[in-house]
Every structure is written in C-alpha cells, then in structure tokens.
Amino acid sequence: MRKAINLEINGKKQALEIEPNTLLLDLLRMDVGLTGTKEGCGEGVCGSCTVMVGNELVRSCLTLAMQVDGKTVTTIEGLADGATLHPLQRKFLEHGAVQCGFCSPGLIVTAKALLESNSDPSEAEIRDAIRGNFCRCTGYVKIIEAILAAAAELRSAANA
Amino acid sequence: MHKEKSEFDVLGKNVIREEGYGKVTGLGKYAIDLEMPRMLWAKIKRSTRPHAKVINVDISRARSLPGVHAVLVDKDCPQTLFGFGCYDEPLLARGKVRYIGEPVAAVAAESEAIAEQACDLIEVDYEELPAVFDVHEAFKTNPPVVVHEEQAKYRRVPIGPVQYNPKHPNAFGYYRIRTGDVEKGFGEADVVVEKTYSNAMMAHAPMERHNSISLWDADGNVTVWSSSQAAYPLLNQISEALDVPHSRIRVIIPKYVGGGFGGKIEMKAEGLCAVLSRAAGHRPIKIVYTREESLCWAGVQHPFEMKIKSGVRKDGTITSCEMFVLVNGGAYAQHGFLVTRQASYGPLGSYRFPNFKLDNYVVYTNQPPGVAYRGFGNTQIHFALESHIDELAHEIGMDPYEIRRKNVLHEGEINAAGEIQHSVAGAELLDEIKKGLERHGPLDRGDGPWRRGRGIAFANKDSVAPSASSAIVKVHNDETVEIRHSAGNIGQGSSTTLIQIAAEFFKVNPERVKTAEVDTWVTPYDQLTGSSRITFAAGNAVLMACEDVKGQILKMAAEVMQANPEELDLAGMRVFVKANPDRFMAVRDLFRTVFFTGSFLPTGGELLGKATFTVPSSKIDPDTGHAADDGMRKIFSFCTRAAQAVEIAVNTETGQVRVEKIAIANDVGRAINPMSCEGQMHAALSMGLGQALSEELQLSEGSIRNADFSSYRFLTAKDAPSNDHVSTHIVEIPQFDGPYQAKGFSEATVSPTAPAIANAIFDAVGVRLRHMPMTPERVLEALDRLRSDQSQ
Q: Where are the alpha helices (DSSP H) in B346-399?
C-alpha cells in the first residue's frame, strides 16, 4: 500500500508515493535520484548517509521516509549555489580533505550543521562534532584544517 | 634530466584533484550509484560451515519465488578454477566448502529484498568435516585436515622455489632467502635474541562496499562496471573464471571509487554475476556486498607469525638474522603466495645483514582468505623486525636511533639478496622524525596511572618487477590533453598525479588536462593499481606518450613552418623555432575545418601519442632468493622508505594507550603534489594506528564475531592525535628513473606506526607487546604479568 508524502528537498517541493517502509536514504537515492548521500554501513554507525532534516542532523539509513513528511531535507546536493561551491566544499578541495570522497558528503553536511550552531569551533569541538563520521582515507588532519578554514571564511563574510 | 624545484611550473604544486568537484557536490557517480535499464539484483548464499561436504543444494523453493529470475549452483557455472597465480577457486563451492562465508549459490531477482528472501529459501545439506584454523596445526606434516586435497594438481605461475611440498600438504606457497652462514654469524655476536611476533586478522574496510554490475550480452561479450581498483587483473580473472577470451571482456571503472587499500584487486562477484546475467536472459546484474560481506569475505589481511633470531655486537652491528614465518592464508590462495614473497624481502630493504636465512610458508586453513593489503605483508614483517631491533638495542644498551643508523642501507649498497639499492633514504628519515618529536621538548614521563614513553620505527616497501604500464595521450583540437590510462583512482589521487606530469611536460595549465574513465576497450593495459607503482610506472608511461605526441606535433608543424623538426620545440601548445622563439604557430592551427564535418590534421587522423613503460627484473635464484649478477641486480622496480616516532601514554590501570605526538617521514622521490603526499601519509598513519591499537576481526572456529562497524572499530576523529601533534615530513631523495624523479610511497608509510607504538609502550611501562593490535586487554595482561613477576 503506497502512501503519499510531501516534503521539500534542497529547496524543491516533492510529492511522492512510497512504500511505508522506505528509508529516507532510499527515497533520496532511488526515488529522487540524489545519489550524493552514501550508504557506508546501513546501521547508523559510519555517518556517510548524514543529511539535515530542518536544522537537525539525521542518519538517513535509520530514518523512515514517512518520518520526514512535511519537513525540509538538505543533502550534499543542496549546498552549492549553482556552480558556486559552499565554502566548506571549496575548503575541502583546497586543503586536500577529500580522498576517496565516499565519506565527504556526510562530513560536509555534518560540518555545515556544526558551523550553523557554532561559528567559531575549536579543533576539539570539530573532532567531537565529526566523531560519528568515519573516514578510512584521510586520517582527519586535513578535514579539520578544511573545516577551520571554512569557519574563518564564513565569519569574515558575516562581518563584512 | 635533473631539475631544481623552482624550474617546474606544475610539479610541486597543490593542484586540486581532478574528480574533487564531483566528490564534494555529491554529483560524481561511484559504481554503487549506477543503475541500468532492466537491471536485476544479486545475492549470494554463503556457507555457514568452516569445512564440510556439500551433499545437496535445494534451490526449488528459491526458484519458484515470484520475482526470481535465476538461481545458480556450481554445476550451472563454468567448471573452471581461478586465482592469482595459484588456480584453486571455483565461482561457487564445488563438492565442499572451505570457510564460513564461501559462496554456495547465487540468486538474481527483481529487488535486493527478493534476492535475499530467495537465498533464505535455499537449503544446503552439509556433512561436517573437521576444520583447521591454527596455522601451526595446518602446517604440520600429516595435518589433521587437508584443506585442498587436489593441491598437487593445481595450475600455478612458477615463482621462486617449488611451491607445493607433500610434506606440508596445506602449505601452498613458500619463499626462501639464504645469505652467508647464520650460525657463523651468531658465533660472532655478543648477544643473540630470539622472539616471536604475530598479528590479528584485519579488514580493509573501504567506505564504498564492494559492488558491481555484470552483463553477459547475447553477442557473447561480458561487460562489467565495478568498484575495483585494478581493471586489467579483474579482466584477466573474469576471463579465467568464465573461460572467455580477453577480447570478449570489457571492464569499466568509474572515476569515483570509494577506497581500496588492496582489497579491490581480486575479482569479487563480477564473474559470478556475469553467469547470472546469462542465466537471466542477458539482463544486467547488480550486486552490492553488505558491510559484513565487505569486511569478512572480500579478502582480509593475512595473520603472520614471525620468529626472529638475531645476533648483534655491542657496537650495534647486526651479525646474523634468521627468520621463520608462517602466514595464515585462509581457504583459498588468492594473493597469498605473492604476499609471502614480497614480505620475505622486507627486512632486506632496511638493513645490512651479512648472514641471513629466511623460510616463509603460506598455509591453507578454514578461515576467510587473505588478499593483498596496503603494504603487502610488509606491515606484518616490519612490526616484527622493528620490535626486534628495539629489543636488540635494549639488550646492548644502545639508543634506538643509533642502532638503526648503524645498520641501515646506504646508497648503492648491494643488499643481502644481491640487489643494488638505489635512491636510498635512511639516515635522512631518522633525522627528520627525531627533529619532529624533539620540537616538543623533553619527554614528561608522567605520574599517576598515565605513563609516557617514546618509540621509533623504520620500514620500507618494494614495488613489483617486472612491471608494465601503457598510456595514450591525445591532444585535442582545442589544445586540451586527454590521458588514457587504466590506473584505478581509488582516492589516492592518481589521476591528478598523471595530469600534473603531463601538464608539466606540455607547460600547460593542469585544468587543460583530463583523464579518461578507465575502460579496457579504451584505456590501455596497466598491471595494477597496487604495489605503490602508479606514480612511477604510469607516470613514466604518460611521460613517454607525451614525448611521442610531441614528436608528431613537431613533424607536422615543421611542414607548415617550413623548418626541420629538430629546430623546433613545444611549450604551452605553441610550436616555436628554438633559435628564434618569435617564429611560432599554435597547435590548434594544425587542425583545419573543411566543409562541415569537424576539423582534422593535414595528414588526417588524430594527435595520439602511445607508449609502454616496462621494468625488467634480474633472474632470481630460487634456492637463495638472490638476484643474478647481470649488471642490473634488480628484484623490484624501486624501494620506498619511511620512519615514524611516537610519544604515547599508557594507562597502567586500564591498559589504554593514547597516542599523543607523532612524527612521520616518507621518501617520495619528488613530491608531485605535496598536499596529496601528506594526505597519503596521514591516511596510512590512521590505518597504522588502527592496526596497532584496535583493528581485529575476531575469529571463533572460523566465524567472524565482529562483522560490523560498531564492533570492528577503526580510528575516529576523536581517537586521532590533534593536528599540532602530528608532524609530517616529506623527504625527497630523487628516484633516478622515476618520472621527474618521483616514485610511489603510500604503502611503506603504513608500516612503522605499530612497531613505533610497541617500542614506545616498552619505553613507557617496560612491557613488550609482540602481538598486534595492542588492545587495552593485551596491554593490561602484560602489565599484570610484569607486576606478578616483580612481586615474586
């Protein structure tokens, strides 16, 4: 029995009919074609599937799509402004914080939520915020650098 | 052509990676993101027994489930055996199963859920056989269990000494090295130390799980889209497994691959899913391994047990070394015998051994098979060797830096396997890490439960020879450059490395150079993305292909400019007269548009450079492992070296080890992209820390008990040392035959971490951990033993 669901994904309103047991992750990847959100473990541990629902971070592999009916969802595809990258995306590239890139969408979305609640995080606060985002490639050094640099840029833009 | 750094335009610059935009925007498509029209999903029914006869597989209920399109057992598959030099593995279990997790049957269905449900409906009757897990038991003459009764008949690639020995019917690979007389050497020593070291099984755990789509079309062609890291080895294995010629197989690897670490070299389910595709009316078949399958049954790191006996004089000179190594290969050979060979040479790339004897066997057991893993056996062997060197240093009261400095190989030296050592970084690396740690000031040993110590380790990694890599370089009519090469860009940044090499050659902006997607019908042969060989082998191939196309451009321009090609040169896509640079023409002006059919050259055709780079090796004596004295004295393509120093704190009450400061140094020949080099060093460090402290696939009777990310734990951002406590030192000792003197290095750098930590634990609290990972339980157990010894 398919159910109707209305939600807003990356600023675009969507009206869909889905099976009630559809995961948010599968809705995004299969129904809407936004494959930027990745599945690393399917158990809510690795953080690759992190998206924002409203201002909250959620693991889309543990969230039923029906739970986000009527809400707004932001995925990695919603960060850039046209061809202009979000400062986090640009800093990840400039600092070499991306290697295989599979964890990058979840990490960047997590960092975005952090910077929205704390515009000037310390290294320890960043490490705490991304502790649930597993990266097998980078060793986190350059990820931390990139988030610190993006935070600084966003602060100076806000003060300008 | 030695050049100073400042003469380069593109090399040494932190160029942003080619595929980076697709990665940070989420728009890049990994294999896992691909879908095909009319695609079906596959699932594998796996063995639940470590060793058993397969009496019957009942697929009737699975086959009649709505939505199921094909169900396969062994008899439905080509009756071949595939492997990586030892051909021992069927697509689906044939007659018996040899490990928990071995594929027994496979299903293709309209959804992943239906395929899974169908697997549950398959009933397998087993007749249990005794199983062997312990490598010593398995290695015995007259062992309790023979894992492969047919071993003597298996087809093999002849490497080294005779591999099958009826006295050890479970050993499937053997390597030996002999130099001098070890007994005489022990007689010349002041101190002789004998210890045994070992490691647990470890997972690669790439974030993108192993996955693929296979299509066996009605024309008889097999096309595979895969998350593989090695297109041509995969193509070759598919060919062997399906008994289909190379010319009928096409392997496509997207530009986006979510990590490999050696775990995506061997074929996974690509061949099996091709058979499903044929059985299901030539529909494309997608399979995505679950995290459990990806961690446990897509290949693991081999557990080693390494006994080392060494003699050392009081002045620190090592006089003799004898090693006996047993490698737990698991149920199928895969890369086992090559890992064994490579690991055997590991010690000889670090130090001078006047007398050396090594015997190294890889042995079948009823555990999941081991495969290639970053370091290719060197992480295990260097854990043992570097712990052991530290033990020698303590025995004779010598500084751990000094004993290494005293024995480390020098430029041009012939090592204990008769191989000439080129581009050697030894003392340079040790000096760097010493500096890196000493900038923090003297060690505060701590009080209370946390006690601090420091430790160092050195390591090396040889890169395979013979080695071959081809490249095609096309210059388009808009003067952009396209590189066609089959290097798997698994996150290490190989595409950008090749782009920088070509951009430097042509003196163009790297944004004007791109790489083609790996597709074996388009991109030419490359041996594999592995063995740290891409920068060196692919880099050289690309450089040679650039030379080739440059020659064509100059010849063509010479006609137009009415000059001799020898008088001309090319830079920034302008051909100019060397003696008079004001006389020039643009490369794009070579192309002319006649009518409305696009532009072409005066000669027709395309500007297409082609080249193959090969590295030969010397003949190796199978009895001694020595390179022939043929003027080359070459066993490997090149060797790269690394060193690390760590400061750690050990909690004497809980056994917890906290890595507080670390200095890492690696020889890279020349840093083509320093940011990328640092990234690889940090990457390896993080893997090394996991290996040292926490990562272990816990086995119980052949079954893995922690097959998920909540219980198989690798380093999170909270576990890693803070950024200002990590000092990263790129050391550039030019590699004489590398492209712009560069070489690969991303494997050597993973090896020193664990032994440096083991040595630091000893320095901090006086206990020696000889098994990794050094978990809190194991540290505490060692501390308890020490305390009870002291109280007696």
A: 378-396
- pLDDT per residue as tens digits for the range B28-45: 999 999 999 999 999 999
Residue contact A136–B723, C-beta within 8 A: no
For helices B231-242 and B270-279, angle between their N-to-C axes, nearest 10 degrees = 50
Nearest to B545 by CA among B591, B588, B494, B502: B502
The pTM score is 0.97
If asked whether residues A42 and A104 sit together in one domain, one would say no
* B377 in reach of chain A (CB within 8 A): no
User: What SS3 state is found at A20?
Assistant: coil
Chain A within 8 Å of B28 (Cβ-Cβ)?
A: yes
Q: Which CATH class for the B34-131+204-296 domain? A: alpha beta
B155 CB-near residues (< 8 Å, 6+ apart):
B81, B86, B87
CA B575/CA B561 separation, integer angstroms: 9
How far apart (Å, rounded) are the C-alpha atoms in residues B343 and A114? 45
Max distance between CA atoms of chain A, in angstroms, equals 53
Among A10, A93, A102, A126, the residue to mutate for chain B (most B Cβ within 10 A): A102
Taking the Cβ of residue B374 and every Cβ of chain A, the question of whether any pair is shorter than 8 Å is answered with no
Q: What is the tens place of the pLDDT at every residue in B101-113?
A: 999 999 999 999 9
Let me know whether A155 and A98 are in one domain.
yes
pLDDT digits (tens, 9 = 90+) for B145-183: 999 999 999 999 888 888 899 999 999 999 999 999 999
Distance CA B5, CA B7 (A): 5
The reported pLDDT for the residue numbered B5 is 64
Tens digits of residue pLDDT in B134-154: 999 999 999 999 999 999 999
Angle at B88 (CA atoms; ends B84, B90), nearest 5 degrees: 105
ipTM: 0.98
Task: Give the confidence band of B1 by pLDDT, cuts at 50, 70, 90.
Answer: very low
Looking at chain B, the domain(s) classified CATH 3.30.365.10 span 304-465+621-791, 467-615
Query: What is the residue range of A47's domain?
Result: 3-78
